[in-house]
Write a structure and sequence with these properties.
Largest sheet: 2 strands, antiparallel
Order of helices and strands: HHHHHHEEHHHHHHHHHHHHH
Shape: globular
CATH topology: Farnesyl Diphosphate Synthase
Number of helices: 19
């Protein structure tokens, strides 16, 4: 099945006060009153205990947030808003939700991938430990849910839940293939990416559509951009010196991950098991990445990946024309498309 038909099919988816226990031994009155005060206090008050616990819980989150990336999702939201014209209060809220969710997901991703680096610095779990980082990410998910309460429509909560489920199901398939060394088909991979990567794009755009008077459907374009983003990221992981400096040399190879170029190479030459065996080893031994890259070049998988990105970009441009409908408000999206093809 061709990429155009795959994506068109995918994009159509569119607390009571505590009392003394009766019959129990009576505690010291002053000690009990002190405990009672702790139990019934306002848990969102700005006392020292709450402030300190918030700093500790948010430590890994704010560590990663301070080492910010390129803010592609923020640019994407601004670009779509040329059409959707979401009131600023809701627009800023959507940006905060997406930023929180994206940062939290990276904290978990780095643990699941055992990545030592993120954006050129030690990953959060390397600095704070795995347990504290997991807790910080979980805490952040609830912060995003709390921010969502500013959107009064029940549909906002439905959108949030649907796309968070999609994101985790996509990540689950990615981990399943990696851990069991099962090479998916390109169609299976696109389905996974449409959940894992496009899900956060879709969450933002669907919330924006909810707060906009515009009636056009922008989800197909968001899906396509998400797939382009992920395939480009797969390519750069194996070909970009800048990426290697920030994440490690060919870390998709050392993690045993089935990225788009790797999937193509394995299916293009099924009799050669070298690349598949290297992925199974999840090795960072010297020379392993060179052997893997030789396999990818032998099957022209990098050239193929670039062609697919160009084809998807052309499809995205067609979708831009469709939703713009002659209004001339496509400059922001064109800038994003240009960024995704570099």
């Amino acid at each position: 099945m061709g990429f155009t038909s795959i994506l068109r099919r995918l994009s159509s988816r569119k607390s009571p006060e505590p009392t003394r226990p009766s019959g129990a031994e009576s505690p010291n009155d002053s000690a009990y009153e002190s405990l009672n005060h702790i139990l019934i206090r306002d848990t969102i008050s700005e006392d020292t205990w709450v402030v300190d616990s918030s700093k500790i819980t948010g430590g890994p989150f704010h560590y990663l947030l301070s080492n910010s990336g390129k803010n592609t999702r923020g640019f994407l939201i601004d670009a779509f808003n040329q059409w959707l014209q979401v009131p600023n209060e809701y627009l800023q809220s959507i940006k905060r939700i997406v930023d929180i969710l994206h940062t939290a997901s990276l904290l978990v991703d780095d643990i699941e991938d055992n990545s030592p680096l993120r954006r050129g610095l030690p990953a959060a779990h390397v600095v704070f430990g795995t347990a504290q980082t997991i807790n910080s990410a979980n805490h952040a998910y609830f912060l995003a849910s709390q921010e969502l309460q500013k959107h009064e429509s029940l549909s906002a909560h439905q959108i949030f839940t649907e796309e968070m489920l999609n994101l985790h199901m996509g990540q689950g398939m990615d981990l399943y293939w990696r851990d069991l060394s099962i090479c998916p088909t390109e169609t299976e991979y696109i389905n996974m990416v449409n959940n894992k990567t496009s899900g956060l794009f879709r969450l933002a755009i669907r919330l924006m559509m909810l707060e906009s008077s515009c009636t056009k459907d922008y989800v197909p374009l968001a899906n396509t951009l998400g797939v382009i983003f992920q395939i480009r990221d797969d390519y750069k992981n194996l070909q970009s010196d800048e990426y290697a400096a920030k994440k490690g040399v060919c870390d998709d190879i050392t993690e045993g991950k089935f990225s788009f170029p790797i999937i193509h190479s394995i299916h293009a030459n099924p009799d050669d098991k070298v690349l598949l065996n290297l992925l199974k080893q999840k090795t960072d031994s010297p020379g392993a990445s060179d052997v893997a890259l030789s396999c990818l070049r032998a099957t022209n998988s990098f050239d193929y990946t670039q062609r697919v990105i160009r084809d998807l970009a052309r499809q995205a441009e067609e979708l831009v024309e469709e939703v713009d409908y002659g209004r001339g408000k496509f400059q922001g999206i064109q800038a994003v498309l240009g960024l995704l093809q570099k």
